[in-house]
Design goal:
The protein is of the alpha+beta class. Among the domains are: 33-138 and 238-263, 3-Layer(aba) Sandwich (D-Maltodextrin-Binding Protein, domain 2); 142-235, 3-Layer(aba) Sandwich (D-Maltodextrin-Binding Protein, domain 2), CATH 3.40.190.10; 479-579, Beta-Lactamase, CATH 3.30.450; 590-648, no CATH class.
Length: 648
């Protein structure tokens, strides 16, 4: 009896089991610690004084975090990196799990201070009102997902404004799309299952989902009728550790940021991001096993024919094999559904598998290249580093990723994001390489254009910030509730604030004295209705100093014309108010002459306080509101001019 095919199949199964078990291995050697980091004695005492942090995790967010049912523990890039940091800092913590909670529920728990830390989250202005973020440790992008049959094409992310768009609640992409997609065209779902049902049922045209998460769910949930039609590169998701807002956590975040600045976890990212490649390799391995299984079936059938008493067992084995063959056939079809180019080659670069995506991308059919060509010669590959260095990395890590330049059959040059995964046999010897290529030529061109725009924008922002910081008047931005979103240095000095962190996110209304508070609130409401206004009011600074201020407020609109902020310019008019008060006090006093006035008994001149003698009418005019007009009395006219005026 020939048992070699069975042994081969068993060896392949063992290899696959070992590969799947590899995901549960410890990742301690995948992180290189920050050896230049020094924790001061005060910082160490501060960390030891903290109670254990209550931590919750998004358990369906590959590759950042997920719950491993086999090990009963959380795993992923963010989880393993956090455990490493906690061990280095001596940080106490406990992971909490409730599989019934959605991501939105967990955000609400942090907002209500029921937990201390949530991972992983993207920064938003709304979340920053009740939480503090570490620096970003991982960046990914959201993708636009649509039915393949719809053939939807987006030239850029702003084309989403022409479609009905679905998103799950509390995702970080919402603030970005609401700036240009009309509100009535956005439908919010509680969970990803409802989101995908919304696409299939026609409730929405496009769903927005984290790109890496969708790639994982496409295999796990068999979403092969859906496709990634666009990547939202304009709004990358930068993931951070999200702590509840407190002074202690702000200090803790600063310590963690210092450690993150020098830790190297590139191998950790590669360890988790290669999960999809291993899934595809498994499909290809199963397809290659099909011939071996068929041969084994023939042997089994021959044996069962000769041994009549085992006929029923033979029928059962045949049915199982037919089901497996159908499953493998369907898996092969799935590989051809993807738009990515999937190529499997020997260690000598001879092509052994070429999917439909590769045929469409490069122009050669599978029968033209399989067992007939080598990849690098066929595609005229240009490497970012010497090929020998790439091979060394591949043999050491079983994985290499980078950007390659290829030439298609029609002579066009394209740039691809290439991922090479090494396949080993039961003796751990390398036998094949699987290469997955994704054409990113358009993305590279767009990223270059975007970088130039960002540089121009950065220069403009620095110039504008310099202008605002040197402006002697207060420049501030408020939301509809009067909360401070931005205030320049002059404004902080007016209200005696030492830094913008003292007032950012805080309501400005309590600083306005009660007689003017309602008027200030009404001005804010009018501005958000599109009506600018001006108000003089009295305020009390953070150090109890009274100041008089004059503010001019106007609405600030986004590109769609929607009012999003109040922009105010405020001037300190305390000195002017004091002068006006003094002038008013002077005007209200009635000028009068009082006391003893020194007057010459002969010429009638009056002596003032400086011992100067003044004409009578000059002195009275100066010290009262009387005004003189000159004439001549009859007696003086007759005695001086010998003239007697006629009586009127």
């Amino acid at each position: 009896m020939e048992i070699r095919p069975f042994l081969i199949a068993l060896a392949v199964a063992v290899i696959m089991l070992r590969a799947s078990a590899g995901f549960a291995d410890s990742t301690g050697d995948l992180i290189q610690p920050n050896r230049s980091f020094i924790l001061s004695e005060q910082e160490s005492q501060f960390i030891q004084s903290l109670p254990p942090l209550k931590v919750m995790v998004d358990e369906n967010f590959m590759p950042l975090s997920y719950y491993n049912v086999k090990t009963g523990a959380f795993e992923g890039i963010s989880v393993d990196l956090y455990r490493h940091i906690a061990e280095r800092l001596g940080l106490k913590h406990q992971f909490l799990r409730d599989p019934t909670l959605t991501w939105k529920d967990k955000v609400e728990l942090l907002k209500n201070r029921k937990i201390d830390l949530l991972m992983s989250a993207s920064f938003t202005a709304e979340r920053a009102q009740y939480g503090v973020f570490t620096s970003s440790f991982y960046k990914s992008f959201y993708g636009a997902i649509a039915l393949k049959s719809r053939n939807i094409v987006l030239s850029d992310s702003y084309d989403l404004a022409n479609f009905k768009v679905g998103v799950t609640k509390s995702t970080a992409i919402i603030p970005f799309i609401t700036t240009f997609v009309p509100a009535q065209q956005i439908i919010y779902y509680d969970n990803p299952i409802d989101l995908y049902h919304g696409i299939r049922s026609g409730q929405v045209d496009i769903a927005l989902r984290n790109k890496y998460v969708f790639q994982e769910e496409r295999f796990n949930k068999e979403l092969f009728d859906l496709d990634l039609v666009h990547t939202l590169v304009e709004s990358p998701s930068k993931y951070c550790y999200f702590f509840v807002k407190s002074e202690a956590n702000q200090r803790l975040v600063e310590i963690i940021d210092r450690y993150l600045a020098g830790v190297n976890y590139g191998k950790l990212i590669a360890h988790y991001e290669k999960g999809e490649d291993e899934l595809v390799i498994r499909y290809i391995n199963q397809k290659q096993q099909q011939k071996q299984l068929r041969l084994a079936t023939a042997v089994v059938v021959a044996m069962l024919v000769m041994v009549g008493f085992a006929y029923l067992n033979h029928r059962r084995a045949s049915r199982k094999l037919e089901a497996l063959n159908a499953h493998l056939y369907n898996q092969a079809k799935l590989l051809n559904l993807t738009h990515d180019s999937i190529i499997v080659r020997t260690m000598d670069n001879v092509i052994t598998f070429w999917n439909d995506g590769a045929a469409k991308r490069y122009g050669w059919k599978a029968e033209d290249v399989v067992e007939k060509a080598t990849t690098h010669d066929l595609l005229q590959t240009i490497f970012p580093i010497p090929l020998d260095e790439i091979k060394d990395i591949l043999l050491h890590n079983d994985l290499w990723e980078g950007e390659l330049t290829h030439t298609t059959r029609d002579g066009a040059t394209i740039i691809v994001a290439s991922r090479w995964s090494l396949q080993r046999n039961s003796d751990n010897e390398p036998v094949a390489i699987m290469e997955i290529n994704n054409d990113i030529s358009d993305r590279i061109r767009f990223e270059k254009e975007l970088l130039l725009r960002e540089q121009d924008l950065s220069n403009s922002e620095r110039f504008l910030k310099a202008v605002i910081d040197t402006e002697p008047d207060c420049i501030k931005i408020l939301d509809i509730d009067g909360n401070v979103l931005m205030m320049n240095r002059a404004g902080l000095e007016m209200i005696d604030a030492d830094s913008v962190n003292q007032v950012k996110g805080e309501c400005i209304y309590p600083l306005v004295t009660p007689p003017y508070r309602d008027a200030f609130m009404l001005l804010t409401q009018q501005v958000f209705k599109g009506i600018p206004g001006t108000l003089e009011f009295e305020a009390i600074g953070l150090k109890e100093r009274h100041v008089w201020l004059e503010t001019h407020a106007v609405p600030f609109r986004n590109e769609q014309g929607i009012i999003v902020f109040l922009l105010g310019v405020t001037r300190d008019i305390t000195a002017r108010k004091q002068m006006e008060a003094e002038r008013e006090e002077a005007l209200t006093r009635v000028k009068k002459l009082e006391g003893i006035i020194p007057i010459c008994m002969h010429c009638k001149k009056i002596r003032d306080d400086q011992n100067s003698w003044n004409q009578l009418e000059q002195y009275i005019s100066k010290h009262s509101e009387a005004v003189f007009s000159h004439g001549i009395c009859p007696q003086c006219a007759e005695s001086l001019y010998n003239f007697t005026p006629k009586k009127s």
